[in-house]
Amino acid sequence: MGFHTKSPDRVTHEEEEANIGVDNQPRETTSTSLNRSQIIKTRNWWICIFVCSCLVVAGRVLSTLLLNFYFIQTGRDVCDDPKQFKGTWLQSMVQNAAFPFTAFLLLLWRSSFSTHSETSSSSSSFGKLFLLYISLGVLFAAYSQLYAIGRTHCVFFLWIFTSQLIFTSIFTTIINKQKFNRWIILSMVLSGAATGLGITSSGGAYIPCENEGSKMSNGAWCAFFGTVAFSLSLCIMQLGFQKVIPTTQSRVSAVILMQTNASMIATLICLVGLFVSGEFKDIKEDFETFKKGKPLYVLSLIGLSLAWQVMSLGLVGLVCLASSLFSNVVSFCSTPLVNILLVLAFRFTDADVKFFKEGALVAGILGFASYVYSLYKSTKKKEIASQSQTTRV
User: CA 132, CA 302: separation in Å to the nearest integer?
Assistant: First the structure.
């Protein structure tokens, strides 16, 4: 009579619409939260890429400058001095000896961010991890010593060093199933060109004399096998992150732990080589005759060890975040900057090579940018794929 009532059919229909709205709300919220989480994760990944790249560049610059300073102050820059060919075991040991620094960083990180699942998952694959760290430690010691010999015995060391990128691309194709696109290939070409042009304009206190025929031949072979060992170590690192190290473990913790354990094993191997070869007797002579004084001798070795460790930590981080090939590309792209600062610090060359320095720097920047663009495209594809998958759900 004056009351308006709804028919049962209409009531049922409106209730269904209301329920549909309620059911759809969580899905939209879940989708939005997933997208936000993906954006934050991608942003943090790019920040880590940038930080690790900076570590590689800074470590490489400082280690090269300090190594040249060490050679000059110990008199190893004189061609006729037999001292130039000595001290290779000390150099290789110093290259790995700063593992207590990364061990401290690991303890600091785990005390702040450690989880129970991380610890339990690590203990379950102890055997595989042990083999991984042993193999990496042996490779670290091998390429450190072979590079030290090649650096001081072969005038073509830097040219042989450029083949490192070729070996890394071969090993990563076989071991890590690396896929190549035009941007990655362009990056390899440009970073190789950057290193090649950088060699044309570079110099160094450790460049040996050209008239040492037999020693140069041995040094060339050592440089070649050192290049192979270094490239192989990068690919084994990537395989370890892909297959051996548990996914529940923090990536930061995994990177620091790998670097610490491998460097510790390499240091022990080099320490044995230092005493077996008798080179430990030359340390006192270097300590006494260091031109800038004994305190600076100790500080230069400590700084050199820390610089190498920082660079290695950045390389391992880039392997974990992206690939062994990208890690190698970043190292190569930093070569022009290293050579420019080397020239400014020690004045090994004159201004006639300015064109090569500038060309190498441009090639290095473009090579790095090309690989970064390839990473950007791959991350965008993953984001689109995850968004479409979320929409279906």
Answer: 27
Cβ(372)–Cβ(232) below 8 Å: no
Buried (b) or exposed (e) across 367-388, using 16+ Cβ within 10 A? bbebbbebbeeeeeeeeeeeee
Cβ(256)–Cβ(99) under 8 Å?
Answer: no
Angle between helix axes 126-153 and 88-96 (nearest 10 degrees) is 140
Torsion of CA 233, 237, 243, 245, to 10 degrees: 140
Per-residue DSSP letters for 77-136?
T-TT-GGGG--HHHHHHHHHTTHHHHHHHHHHHHHHH--HHHHHHHHHTHHHHHHHHHHH
Q: Count CB atoms within 10 A of the CB of residue 294.
A: 11
Return the closest-CA partner of residue 73 out of 205, 264, 169.
205
Q: Which is nearest to 68 in space by CA: 202, 259, 160, 239? A: 202
First to last CA, the chain: 49
Is pTM beyond 0.90? Reply is: no
What's the confidence (pLDDT) of residue 353?
Answer: 52
| Helical residues (DSSP H) of 240-323, grouped into ranges | 251-277, 280-289, 294-321
248, amino acid identity: T
pLDDT digits (tens, 9 = 90+) for 75-129: 776 666 667 778 889 999 999 999 999 999 999 998 887 655 555 444 557 888 9
Q: How far apart are CA 304 and CA 67, in angstroms?
A: 7
- Contact, 62 vs 307, CB < 8 A? yes
CA of 154: how far to CAs of 65, 149, 206, in Å?
20, 8, 10
What does the alpha-carbon distance between residue 162 and residue 107 come to, in Å, rounded to a whole number? 36
Residue 104 CA to residue 323 CA, distance in Å, equals 26
273 vs 89: CA distance, rounded Å = 6
- C-alpha separations of 296 from 70, 73, 93, 137, 202 in Å: 10, 10, 19, 29, 26
